[in-house]
Amino acid sequence: MTPDEFPICNVLFCDDIRREETGKLIVIGVYTGGISTVFPSTSPLSYLVQVSGLDIGHHSLDFVIEAPGGYRVDFNGGVEIVNPEAPVFISLQGAPMQYKEAGRLSFQLIFNGEQKEIAHLMIEGQTPSTKPEDAEAF
User: Fold this and answer.
1) pLDDT higher than 80, residue 14
2) How far is it, in rounded angstroms, from Cα 32 to Cα 13?
3) What is the pLDDT of residues 118-132, one digit of tens each?
4) CA distances to 68, 71, 75, 109, 110 from 114, in Å
5) How far apart are CA 7 and CA 44, in angstroms?
6) pLDDT bracket for residue 136 (50, 70, 90)
7) Mean pLDDT of the chain
8) DSSP 3-state assignment of 37?
9) Are 4 and 112 in contact (CB under 8 A)?
């Protein structure tokens, strides 16, 4: 990889990620098409990021997640690459996301000063009605 090349990344959006005693990861509640919610809402979201294409050594990797409506979460960190042939898995867990409107949840990587969207998930939903005729009877 040349210093100007962007690493190859894959991202799973999910509810939770756990590590077994054996070191294997358990990914729970993978989102495959989008998130359906009622606006506004807040819920935790986790991300499993697979990174490959990096040379041996330490690399700073910063991630930005932006929700529709302007809510943003930043993760700052890095990875130590020992074997450039093996992908690295990064688990970002339980970030509380606020959903205010429908649109694109953007997952971005900042690498060597360049920021790119590497994955996204669509957020769909509705605002709860406050009209009395829409309320359910008990």
Assistant:
1) yes
2) 8
3) 999 999 998 877 555
4) 22, 21, 15, 8, 5
5) 27
6) low
7) 91
8) strand
9) yes
DSSP E strands: which ranges in 20-87? 25-30, 34-38, 41-52, 57-66, 72-81
Q: Tell me the C-alpha distance between 77 and 120, whole Å.
A: 20
Rounded to 5 degrees, φ, ψ at 9 are: -130, 140
Contact (CB, 8 A) for 39 and 127: yes
Which tokens go with 15? 């509810």
Map residue 8 onto helix, strand or coil.
Answer: strand
How far is CA 132 from each of CA 28, 38, 118, 125, 138, rounded to the nearest angstrom?
38, 18, 44, 20, 13
Contact 123, 104 (CB under 8 A): yes
Please provide the DSSP assignment of 77-117 as one string: EEEEES-TTS-EEEEEEEEEEEE-SSEEEEEEEEETTEEEE
Task: Read off the pLDDT of residues 59-113 as tens digits, 9 standing for 90 and up.
Answer: 999 999 999 999 999 999 999 999 999 999 999 999 899 999 999 999 999 999 9
